[in-house]
Design goal:
- About 15% of the residues lie in helices and about 25% in strands.
- It contains 4 helices and 17 strands.
- Strands 2-3-4-5-6 form a 5-stranded mixed sheet. Strands 12-11-13-16 form a 4-stranded antiparallel sheet, with no helix packed on it.
- The two termini are about 20 Å apart.
Length: about 375
C-alpha cells in the first residue's frame, strides 16, 4: 500500500484523480496550517482509494506533518524552536492517534529547516519530491540516527518519502511509501509507518523484497531478527523495475556491497554477515551513474551550478557519499513532464538493530 501527502494549490478533485492515476491505495492530504479541505474528501474516496486527513504544520523553524488527524482538527503552528509549542502540539496529535513526521529537514528555504529535534517524532521524511542534495543530507542524517540507536539500545526512527505536490507539473505519489499493514484502515496504516514497516519507492513500477534470515528465522522491513551474536545471517534483496540500477547494502559500518542490475531491471543480491558485524542492515537501489546529472534541479526549479570533480553533486563521487539509509529510487519511467531525479531512491532500508544482549534486529 502506498501513501503520499499533497498540499497546496490543486483542488481536492485534481489531487484524488492524480492519486488514482498513480495507482495509490491510500493518500494523506496535508494542507499548510489549515484543515479547511478536510470536509471535501469524503465523496472522493472509494473502494480504490482510502483518504486520510492531516496538516503540514509550517512553524517558524521547520515544517512537520501531522498525519491521521480527525476531520476538522487543527494544529497550531505559531511557535519557534526555542518555544514549547511543538511539544504541546505533538502531544495533542499523539492523543488523537495521529503521528508526527518532520518534513524535508534540510530544505534551504527560510524557516523550512528542521530545528526541533526528533524526540517527539514518529518518523522523519528523508525524500521529498524530485531527489535533491538536501534529500541526500536527510538520508545521511537518518543513517547516523540508526547508528546512534544501535549504540545506545534506544528507539530507532523510521523514515518516509512524500511527493509534496503543490501544483502542476509536480506529480502525486513521486515518491511514495509502501506500507506493510494488517488492513487498509487509518489505524493499521499509521501503525505500520510508526513501526517502520514501510519502504520508499519512486513509482509503482518498482518492487523491492528485502529479507534477513538465520537458523530458520526470518525478518523483513521493520522487523527484528533475534539470533546469537556470531550466528550467520543471510541478507537478500530482490529488485524489479530498475534497469541498470545499483543495489547497495549499508550497515553501521558503511556500504558493504554494491551490485549492478541488468538492463531488464530485475535481480537478486545476497550478502552474508553476523550481528557482530552489522548492527543494522538497509538496502538502497539507485539510478545508474551518469556523466551528467540530467534533470537535477533545486527546489526552486533552477539548475545546479557546475561543480568540480569529486564534489557532492558529482555522479562519480566516491562511495562514501552513497551511505544514506534509504533504498534509493530506481530508474523508473515517469509521467510526461516530470523532471528526472539524478539518483533518487527507490528501495527502502531495513535496519538490523542489535540489542544489548547481542541479538540482531531488523527495524
Amino acid at each position: 500500500m502506498h501513501t503520499v501527502y499533497s498540499d497546496g494549490k490543486r483542488t481536492p478533485e485534481e489531487v484524488a484523480a492524480g492519486a488514482r492515476a498513480a495507482r495509490l491505495d491510500f493518500m494523506i492530504s496535508t494542507d499548510h496550517n489549515t484543515p479547511a479541505s478536510h470536509g471535501v474528501w469524503g465523496p472522493l474516496a472509494g473502494n480504490d482509494l482510502l483518504i486520510l486527513t492531516g496538516e503540514e504544520v509550517t512553524t517558524r523553524n521547520g515544517h512537520y506533518l501531522a498525519l491521521g488527524l480527525e476531520p476538522g482538527e487543527w494544529i497550531d503552528w505559531r511557535y519557534r524552536a526555542r518555544d514549547k509549542g511543538f511539544e504541546k502540539e505533538a502531544q495533542r496529535i499523539h492523543a488523537s492517534g495521529g503521528i508526527v513526521v518532520p518534513a524535508h529537514p534540510y530544505c534551504p528555504y527560510v524557516a523550512c529547516r528542521w530545528k526541533f529535534g526528533y524526540d517527539d517524532a514518529d518518523a522523519v521524511e528523508v525524500w521529498t519530491g524530485p531527489w535533491t542534495v538536501d534529500d541526500e543530507s536527510s538520508v545521511n542524517t537518518w543513517d547516523s540516527m540508526l547508528a546512534h540507536s544501535a549504540r545506545t539500545g534506544g528507539r530507532w526512527l523510521p523514515a518516509m518519502g512524500n511527493s509534496d505536490a503543490h501544483s502542476f507539473p509536480q506529480v502525486i505519489g513521486f515518491p511514495h511509501n509502501v506500507v506493510n499493514a494488517t488492513s487498509l484502515s487509518r489505524d493499521a496504516l499509521l501503525d505500520g509507518i510508526r513501526n517502520g514497516r514501510n519502504w520508499i519507492a519512486e513509482s509503482a513500477d518498482v518492487s523491492v523484497d528485502f529479507t534477513v534470515t538465520s537458523g530458520g528465522k526470518s525478518a523483513t522491513v521493520g522487523d527484528r531478527l533475534n539470533v546469537a551474536a556470531d550466528a550467520p545471517v543471510t541478507v537478500t534483496a530482490k529488485i524489479a523495475g530498475v534497469p541498470n540500477g545499483v543495489v547497495r547494502f549499508i550497515t553501521d559500518e558503511g556500504q558493504t556491497q554494491q551490485v549492478t542490475l541488468p538492463a531488464g531491471g530485475q535481480g537478486t543480491s545476497t550478502w552474508l554477515t553476523t550481528p557482530q558485524l552489522a548492527a543494522y542492515v538497509r538496502v538502497e537501489v539507485r539510478h545508474p551513474k551518469t556523466r551528467r546529472h540530467l534533470g537535477q534541479r533545486y527546489r526552486d526549479g533552477n539548475e545546479p551550478p557546475a561543480r568540480p570533480h569529486g564534489s557532492v553533486d558529482q555522479p562519480d563521487f566516491p562511495r562514501r557519499q552513497l551511505t544514506g539509509p534509504v533504498r534509493e529510487a530506481l530508474p523508473v519511467p515517469l509521467p510526461a513532464g516530470t523532471p528526472s531525479p539524478r539518483k533518487s531512491p527507490v528501495g527502502w532500508i531495513v535496519p538490523i538493530l542489535r540489542p544489548p544482549t547481542g541479538e540482531t534486529c531488523l527495524p
